[in-house]
Amino acid sequence: MKVSETFLWGGATASFQAEGGYLEGGRGLSTHDYETDGSVENPRGITYRLPDGTVGRVKSSFFNPEDLPDGAEPCLLPDCYYPSHKAVDHYHHWKEDIALMAGMGFNVYRFSICWSRIFPTGEEEQPNEEGLKFYENMIDEMEKYGMEPLITIHHDELPIHLANKYDGWSSRHTIDCYVKYCRTLFERFGGRCRYWLTFNEINAVRGFVACGTHKCDNQTHYNAAHNMFLASALAVKLGHEMMPGSQFGAMYAASALYPATCKPEDVFRHMQKRRETYFFMDVMARGYYPSYTQDIFNRRGVTLETQPGDELILREGTLDFISFSYYRSNTISTETVSNVISGDPNPYLEMTPWGWPVDPVGLRYVLNEFYDRYQKPLFIVENGLGAVDQVEEDGTVQDDYRIAYLKDHLKEMMKAMNVDGVECLGYTMWGPMDLVSLSTGEMKKRYGFIYVDVDDKGNGTGKRIKKKSYGWMKEVIATGGESLWRD
């Protein structure tokens, strides 16, 4: 029971959760310089609260950078700390971080490019050379170690200028800006990068990215999603033309969905919920809106705004592979009140410290369901455990709970591949080193194989420390997964 030698083992990060350096290198301000999810109650009754002294949203009166006093930064509240502005300073530690990943045997690294680091407002005629050079240096370093880049073009953020002036993806103008941005990346990195993701967790698109400063009602949300579908399809077509042999996916927030009971009404509601979630994948993988779309739009009061030629664009830009994040499963009933990716708790499952159900078998379930549905290669681009890690007196981090979590999930992945016949290209764990949590703005919620000495308020040395899971994962990769089965 092992994977092939071509299997891609690695880790995944997002620029705004890892990089920092948000005012350096000619970078413009992005939507995630102004907001982090948090201080919200999820359907399980658990409230995610930002650490004391941090802010989840920059004061609305300063939402437009043009309204800021000269020289002021977006976070103007007294003594506040905004997590992503510093993050774990990957912007200055990228060489060290890549070397540590290579030391584990990674042959792929999924990272996102910050759009406003390339086009500070999104509307410049010429890109920011310093921003391009930063990512070029990273790719150079990865090549030294035989590590493939897996580039996320748009990871939940866009230049704040496009959100303010055009209301983000609810405007078709943003499509043109995105395609120009993609062309620039393909021209600069295309000959060296085979794998690309057009969007991150597109089924969970929300907030300023989708709707700018306007309320993101159903109508605006689905029109924004339609514009993102078009942008992705145009990028895929352009990428195939400019980079023969390139492979494109888009990333989805996946969870295994189970009916809460065998009551027929619950089973039917489960089917509806699956369609609401997989709708995004269906359009982008198949190249058209499925027949059930009208039922979703009718129930949500949506009239999609399309233009002549949209159908052809979608057909000509379908995805080459399906990539997704997997952290949990949910149950669905007629009583469920949820967003696109959430649901009710499962009484048979344990929870993480942050209230996420732990369901390794659900990963095998999702892999089989997606492969049955699309018959395209799959790529697990996020999976991991957020937990409280402690540095012991001897300087070690004994994260056996993370090892147990990953071991159970990786074994189910390998069962899907070796027993069920699912084609899976690779696995990139979230995240290889600790980074800022999107959902809570914390550093306390740690994911990495590598501990980063930064706390919730940005204090610390920034020192990188290998956790126990680092050596464990190194052996898993070296043996192609065989070590998972030894005991």
Q: Top keywords for this entry?
A:
13% strand; TIM Barrel; single chain; 15 helices; 37% helix; 487 residues
Q: What do these coordinates show?
A:
With 487 residues, the chain is of the alpha/beta class. The protein has a single domain (8-485), classed as Glycosidases (TIM Barrel, Alpha-Beta Barrel). The protein is 37% helix and 13% strand. The chain has 15 helices and 13 strands. The protein has helices at 15-18, 83-86, 90-104, 115-118, 129-144, 160-166, 173-189, 207-211, 218-242, 264-286, 293-300, 310-316, 360-374, 400-418, 468-478, and strands spanning 8-12, 40-41, 47-48, 108-112, 148-152, 195-197, 247-249, 251-259, 322-332, 378-382, 424-430, 450-452, 464-466. It has a nine-stranded parallel sheet. A two-stranded antiparallel sheet has the order 2-3. Strand 10 (378-382), helix 14 (400-418) and strand 11 form a beta-alpha-beta unit.
| Mean residue pLDDT | 89
- The share of residues in extended strands comes to 5-15%
How much helicity do the residues have? Answer: 25-40%
Proper CATH architecture: Alpha-Beta Barrel
**What is the CATH superfamily label?**
Glycosidases
Distance between the termini: 13 Å
Structural class: alpha/beta
User: What is Rg?
Assistant: 21 Å
Lateral strand order in the biggest sheet:
7-6-5-4-1-11-10-9-8
CATH class category = Alpha Beta
- The SSE string, one letter per element, is EHEEHHEHHEHHEHHEEHHHEHEHEEEH
Count of helices?
Answer: 15
